[in-house]
Amino acid sequence: MTTTTPTTDTDTTASDGTEKVVRLGIIGIGTQGDMYAKFIADGLVPHMTIGAIADIDPEALARAKELYPDVPQYSTAEELIASHDIDAVITTIPHYDHPDVAIASIEAGVPTLVEKPAAVYTRQVTRMNEVAAAHPEVPFAIMFNQRNNPLYQKIKAIVDGGEIGEVLRSNWIITTWWRPQGYYNQSEWRATWGGEGGGVLVNQAPHQLDLWQWICGVPKSVFAKAGFGFRRDIAVEDEVTALVDYGDGRTGVFVTATHDLAGTDRFEILGTQGKIVVDNSKTATVSRYTKPEKEISDSVDTAGARKLMTGDLSVLEGVVSTETIEDSSPWGAQHSGVLENFARHILFGEELLAAGADGIKGVRLANAIHLSAWTGREVGLDFDEDEYLAELNTRIAEEGKFAQRD
């Protein structure tokens, strides 16, 4: 890879006239790794090629060899990282393994993109982030592809810009993750505490947990109820309802499940001067008030209130304006966009869509939800990491399939 000190985005070719590219090492060629390889091979990721592939499963490597015969292969992440075939890596491996592989890569000076979630528990992520902070010269990012969704980028800009005032309440029902029992029966590690580290919170919903705190802020505490093997024959959570407290009376609710066949994806953000409702992560209805709701309330006298009670809404005429925002970006564009952004960050200094250090926020929230559901009490986001790990290890020991964690 030929790189230069970042100058302008138009400086995209090397001295020999060819396009500057990042040779990406894909560590883990399962479902996610194969998808990213296909994106790159199909030319959907400018400035990136497949540099090498690593997997501990010989059968997975054999399948990859048929698709990408000219791409070097390695049986371990360490061999790939030490090779001269790559300029960066992505970790598409089991959740527990992300930090160790990322740490090895960063310490070797190799730009690192971590798949979501960053890890299973915060202590793992803290170690990874500390190593990354000690090597600021090594690019470090996380695959939060929904931060590259134009719809959510627009919503964040509206909230950050104060267009709906201060956020008072948010609610996200995201139950479009229906999974049949056969999905869980695919492998011994899936939907286990020791192998996967949890259920819907760590597998299906991390992107929504990230978006929720990215847009609405990090809560102070959470009280949660969860069903563990509620509607599926699994040990981990397949149903979650969480109530979070942001302080000053501001709250949020997050509901997710893997057994809702019809499924719902609805995200509401209520502010002091407006409201945003997102349906199916495709359509947002933004209502803006001419002035804060409290001022509108104070301006309606008793006579006006009586009119409202009879269905006469004339007293509110002109108070609310509504905008509809549609997202038509194709599936996969968010993922490939993160890959392209990572390459452009390495080559040209473009700002990362999601810095790797941000990965701890969603993991911390998921951990707090788990801990609250396990203990039956409200849990602060500054929870005791030792208590969380002890509770997790108790469940790993009860499974009797995997070693406990430290």
TrEMBL record:
Alphabetic keyword roster:
NAD
Question: Do you know which InterPro entries this protein is assigned to?
Answer: Gfo/Idh/MocA-like_OxRdtase_N (IPR000683), Gfo/Idh/MocA_Oxidoreductase (IPR052515), GFO_IDH_MocA-like_dom (IPR055170), NAD(P)-bd_dom_sf (IPR036291)
Q: Which residues form the Gfo/Idh/MocA-like oxidoreductase N-terminal domain?
A: 23-135
GFO/IDH/MocA-like oxidoreductase domain location is: 152-276
The cross-references to Pfam families, in alphabetical order and at most eight, read:
GFO_IDH_MocA (PF01408), GFO_IDH_MocA_C3 (PF22725)
The keyword NAD is annotated on this UniProt entry:
yes
Q: What is this protein called?
A: Gfo/Idh/MocA family oxidoreductase
Source organism (scientific name)? Brachybacterium equifaecis
